[in-house]
Design goal:
308 residues, alpha/beta, Rossmann fold, Alpha-Beta Plaits, 2 domains, six-stranded mixed β-sheet, 10 helices, elongated
C-alpha cells in the first residue's frame, strides 16, 4: 500500500504546557477509508489541522501526496479537501455559487460540469439556486462536502461528517463516501458514531491523550480483539452461582434467569462444551442459547479504558 499521507514523530505542545500530540507516526494509504477514533480531547482535530496546514506542529514531519506540509504547503493543501466539524458556509450565497467559488480558491478554472456532478452526487442539484440560509442543517453539511470536493482533491478529511444529520442523510453520505473511494480518493474521517467506522472504514486508528495506541485493518481488529458472548437462558432462576461454575467467570442476570459467558471465538477450545457439561452436572435446565459478537464500539471502549 502506497502512503499518500506520511506522518513521522509528530508532536504539538501549547504555551500552557498542554501536549496535544506525542510523537505520532502514521501512514495512510492512497484510496483507503481511514477512521480515526478517540474520545473528546484525544487529539483528533489537532492532528487533522496539522496535516491540513492550519496548525503548525512543534516537532515532526508530515508529507501529503509527496509534498511537505510546511515547505510545500500550497501543493500539499491543494491535494486536500477539508470538511470541518463546524458549519462554515456563506448563508447569503447560492449553493452552486459557493461551491464554484471554493474551486476558484485553489486556482482551478471554471468547470460547470464538475460542479454540477458534485451537486448531483450529494443530492444538491435541485437546490443549486437556493440560498444556503434556506437549507436544513443536514443539507448545509452536504454543501460543505461539495465545497471540499470542488477542486478535485486526492484526499478528503471529514471531521464528524454526520454530526446533527438524520439517519437517512447519514446513509446517503456513507454511499457517497464509498463512491469517492472507488474513484481513488483517500477518505479520513473522525467520528463519534462508531457504527460509521464499522460500516465504512478499511482501517481504524485509535488515538488517546495525543498518542496513537492502535492502527489495524478493521476486519483483522475485530478478529483479533473481538469477543463473543454466549447467553444461557434457564428455566428456573438461579439465586447464586454454584462453585463448580466459578472457572467460567459467568455473569448472572438480575432476575437469575440468564448466565452470560464471554469467550474467544478464535481459540481452539472456547470452553463452551465444558460449560454445558457443568451446567448439566449442576442440574440447571437450559431452555435457550444466544450468541452475540462484540461490535467495534465494544472494542473501542475496551482499548480506551485500558489506555486510561
Amino acid at each position: 500500500m502506497q502512503a499518500i499521507i506520511d506522518i513521522a514523530g509528530l508532536a504539538k505542545s501549547y504555551k500552557s504546557g498542554f501536549q496535544a500530540l506525542k510523537s505520532v507516526d502514521l501512514q495512510i494509504g492512497e484510496g483507503e477509508i481511514f477512521a480515526l477514533l478517540g474520545p473528546n480531547g484525544a487529539g483528533k482535530t489537532t492532528l487533522i489541522s496539522i496535516v491540513c496546514g492550519i496548525v503548525r506542529a512543534t516537532a515532526g514531519r508530515v508529507t501529503v501526496a509527496g509534498h511537505d506540509v510546511v515547505r510545500e504547503y500550497r501543493a500539499a493543501r491543494a491535494a486536500i479537501g477539508l470538511v470541518p466539524q463546524e458549519l462554515t458556509v456563506d448563508a447569503f450565497a447560492k449553493v452552486a455559487d459557493t461551491v464554484a467559488y471554493s474551486r476558484g480558491l485553489f486556482r482551478k478554472g471554471r468547470d460547470t460540469a464538475h460542479v454540477e456532478h458534485v451537486l448531483k452526487e450529494l443530492s444538491l442539484f435541485d437546490k443549486r439556486d437556493s440560498m444556503v440560509m434556506a437549507l436544513s442543517g443536514g443539507m448545509k453539511r452536504r454543501v460543505m462536502i461539495a465545497k471540499a470536493l470542488a477542486h478535485e482533491p486526492r484526499i478528503l478529511f471529514l471531521d464528524e461528517p454526520t454530526a446533527g444529520v438524520d439517519v437517512e442523510l447519514r446513509r446517503d453520505m456513507w454511499a457517497m463516501i464509498r463512491r469517492l473511494r472507488d474513484t481513488g480518493v483517500t477518505v479520513i474521517l473522525t467520528t463519534h458514531y462508531i457504527e460509521e467506522a464499522e460500516e465504512m472504514a478499511d482501517r481504524v486508528g485509535v488515538i488517546r491523550r495525543g498518542e496513537i495506541i492502535l492502527v489495524e485493518e478493521k476486519a483483522a481488529l475485530m478478529r483479533k480483539l473481538g469477543r463473543k458472548q454466549l447467553t444461557v437462558q434457564l428455566r428456573r432462576p438461579l439465586v447464586a452461582l454454584p462453585g463448580e461454575l466459578a472457572p467460567f467467570d459467568l455473569e448472572r442476570s438480575a432476575n437469575g434467569l440468564a448466565l452470560t459467558y464471554t469467550f474467544d471465538a478464535q481459540a481452539a477450545d472456547t470452553g463452551i462444551a465444558g460449560l454445558m457439561r457443568q451446567l448439566a452436572a449442576c442440574g440447571l435446565d437450559v431452555v435457550d442459547l444466544q450468541t452475540r459478537q462484540s461490535s467495534l464500539e465494544d472494542i473501542f471502549v475496551s482499548l480506551v479504558s485500558e489506555a486510561s
